[in-house]
Amino acid sequence: MIEPVLKYINEPLLTFGNGQKAIDPRDGLMLFGPFDQMKIMGVKNIGIIGTKGLRDKMITYLKKIHSPIINSDVNIARPNFPGLETIFGISVNFNNIIQIDVKEDEINKYLQYTDSHQRVHNWVNLYVSPLVAYAEKEEMPVDVWFVVIPEIIYQFGRPNSRIPKSTENVNVGLKKQERNSTQMDLFFQEEKDLLREAYEFEVNFHNQLKAKILSAKIVTQIIRESKIAYEDIFTQKQIDGERKFDTAKAWNISNTLYYKLGGLPWKLGDVRDGVCYLGLVYKKTESDSKNNNACCAAQMFLDSGDGMVFRGNVGPWWNPKNKEFHLSEKDAFEIISQSMESYYSRFGNYPKEIFIHAKTYFDDVEWKGFEDAVQGKSQIIGVRIRENSTFKLYRGFSYCVPRGTMLQYDDSKALLWTKGFIPRFKTQIGLETPNPVDIAITRGNAKIDIVCKDILSLTKLNYNACIYGDGVPVTLKFADSIGEILTAGKDIKSGVLPFKHYI
Predict the structure, then answer these.
(1) Average pLDDT, integer, range 405-430
(2) Residues contacting residue 471 through CB under 8 Å, at least 6 positions apart
(3) What predicted TM-score, i.e. pTM, was given to this entire model?
(4) Which of 149, 168, 272, 349 is deepest in the core (most CB within 10 A)?
């Protein structure tokens, strides 16, 4: 233990076009363009799948973001959007958009299904089946598919969602004892097998769709109707409130599109060569508390910002006593080895340092597997990161402590405020006093100052949005959602895929 020391980490810089740097992604993109702006410039082919009405709305919205979008109120935290082509140097080929129709009456038919497994499974297949069929034919390559869904799919396509009672509801499904039955039926065997398939998948439209297309390597962006055409479905009061976020949505959708097209909007500005970061992902395969089986995966992020997902094995990784996940020595070895070899195949050498981020401590067994995998190749450091809601830090000022505040309370432990007052905006994001993240170097040797600086930098690598920074590093930001996709169905075949397939 040491006497607590209060420090401040300057806002990490990001690198944009021509090697120019800025702290806010939107400033950097406006002034210098994306980091690899020459890589994917020009007209791009995209696809849109949805009902006729929603496809038209998506096209209208894409045309809208080709032009500047101006904020209704002057707010430095919500800057104006200059336009897709102006910022990213790309444009959509509106004369050659690939469109796939989803029948509205089919969506409405399955909406009446009381069994949530059957309802969501059928909804997902309305989109997945034609997408996979098109990928197999590939008459014209599509870089990104916009999957445009109505609000009813968002509302009733989630866990624990229930449709309102109605005389028109349809009771289609199997009782619990029939779902896993291996007994052959004399009648309706084929029909029951089709029904059984629905129970192999999680009741979550987003996760199930992403899981079903992983093996086909189809890149998608799911868009809700309310995000692109809220004027058509909201009340006037809701419309007035939503307009404040028009520029933010344009920034986010455009940035995501650029990234999923294969571009890199920005990279970290102050990095050490040969460093990579691994975020460990765990997800229980059963909700039953007595079952300790879980799926493990690793998210690897390079100093460039590129990300890959490596799937490990399903095994008894969950310990209900201490409520922690831990790998066996063999599986720990394998998942780190996968990441190491992927790094080697890309750069021709192994990383100098690997920082493994997790929400729990590493036990001796799994750490030995990690060490054996990097023996003679790389230095490995284990870092536990978790949110801390029990400690608050106040100051005698109108606003809370600034983002980047660090309170070191041990040689290898510190509290880091990734949210807080932002001098660039002269305000704080949110009204509440922010909670810090609790960071501890639990294995290996590293300086806590460097670890905290890296983690603050990694809060700025969420390419699924275009914001100043997140509350948690990207190594953990999407951990839960990736785990949910990998366990959204039985026997999900993914292989090693870029991070963009999961978001």
Answers:
(1) 91
(2) 387, 418, 419, 434, 437, 459
(3) 0.92
(4) 149
